[in-house]
Every structure is written in C-alpha cells, then in structure tokens.
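Sharing a chain and its predicted structure for anyone who wants a worked example. Both blocks are below, sequence first, tokens second.
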Amino acid sequence: MRSIWKGSIAFGLVNVPVKVYTATEDHDIRFHQVHAKDGGRIKYDRVCTVCGKSVQYADIDKAYESPEGDKVILTDEDFAKLPAAEKHEIPVLQFVPSDQIDPILFDKSYYLEPDSATPKAYVLLATTLEQIDRTALVHFTLRQKTRLAALRVRDGMLVLQTLLWPDEVREVEFESLDGVAAPKPQEIKMAETLVETMSDDFDPDQYTDEYQIELKRLLDEAIASGTGKVPEQPESAPAEMDAEVVDLVAALQRSLEASGRRAAGEDNGKAKPAKKAAAKKPAAKKTAAKKTAEKPAKKAAKKTAARKGA
C-alpha cells in the first residue's frame, strides 16, 4: 500500500504522527465501452462548447450555476481562501460512546500507521480508545475537503472513518406505512423464534460475491474458447490536430480571409492596377491586327516598285 496523506493526530498536547492509507479496495471487474461493429474502444474528449477545441485538464476551472441561471467560475486560488481544518493535522474534537454513532453516517475508511521512530504515543491512544470503548470525533481534510470522522481501533490499529454530515442523510417518510396495524404478540413471538434459529456470530469470510465469481468464470471460458474475442486492429489516427497544426491552420485561414478582403477592396475602386492591366490587353490586340493588315500592303508596294524598275 502507498500512503495518501501524512500528518499528525492532535490529542490534547500530544501529537501522534501518522500515515494514512485507503483501507478498502474495489474488486469489481471493469469493462470498456467498445463499438459493437468492430470492437474499437470508445474514447471521450473534453471539448469546449464555445471554441470547439479539446481542453487539457490543467486548463479546466470549476463553474457554478445558481437556480436563477447566474454562472460564476472559481479557481484554485478561490478555493484556497475557504475555511478548512489544518491540512496536516487531525484534531480530536471529543470522545463519544461508540454505539451513539448511527452506521448510516459512515462513509470511507482509512488505516493509520505510526510515522515515528518511537510510536509510543500511537500505541497509547489506540490502547486507551479500546479500553474505554469510545470513539474519537475528529476533523480530517483530504483533497481540499474537510470531513467529520470517527477515529476508532481495529485489531490494535487506528482506523479513521469519514462521516457524512447530518444534512447529507435524507429524511424519508413512506405513506405506505401510515395506518398499518401493530403486530400481534403471537406474531412477534414467532418472528423472534425464527430469528433465534438463524442467529450466529458474524464471520464475513463465509460470504462471497457469487456474481463476480461467475462473471470471472464466464470471461475465462470466453477467452479460452475464443468466443467474442476481439481481433487486434490498428487504431486510426486521431482526427483532432495538435496545437501547432491548429494554430497554423488558423493563421492560414486568417491570411485567406485578409486576402479576400483586399481583393474585395480593389474591386470597389480602392486600387486600379488590375483594371489598367486589363485595359491594355484590347489595345495590344488592335496593334497586332494593324501590323497584320500592314504586311500585305507593304509586300504589294515592293512588287509594284520592282516592276517599274524593270
């Protein structure tokens, strides 16, 4: 495991240096979305709806839209101004009876490892919590988010469990329960007898995720038999162009537009060189025609002079 946070538990005047590790992991089998026709991977791109360009994650800020439709953008600097518990400290707020924390409030769990050459303070806090059967309520800040958390002991190790805030638990009332008659004593007694016959100590190892087991077996069989196997195919080059190409295309487009505007301006009489050049062409044709007409006349004159001389 790799620690995701380092800091210390502030227990009165005592500081307990700790490292934080994620206590749980997800073993669900992951699937990719593919094109049913050829098995090609479906990829997603962050595209701006205004300029139409792909946006890098580093260039993305967070925006909020109020119920009235007003939009504001907050940057990391704005979030840094918000009140939060000390980022590298887990302050103990109070100790409460463990059974007073409703399990519905529990969110994510983290292991705490002592981060000191002499973890005496860590062992002292863990032993004390285990003997008094109480849970410490603390503040825990992770990824710019401060949570209320429960600090307790599991197998001699300190465990931190973040808690939901009270307003994050929905209040619910089902109309289908209104006016339902209370169970009769005989019904309750029979139900209690049934519960007693099914009662035992909790052992999580005796429960397995049958769905994931069968899904893994199905996948192994499909791979072994070749059923539904996707052949390796070269992926086509991405359609989007890199930043330099986009800038070049944009520059060329602007150049073409500027050239078009200049041409339009010349047609409106702002510049005449093209028209003058065009006007010379008919004159050139007339000159050529005149020279062509003069040649037979000159030849005829020479013949006449030659005859007279004879």
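Comments welcome. The longest helix spans residues 273-309.
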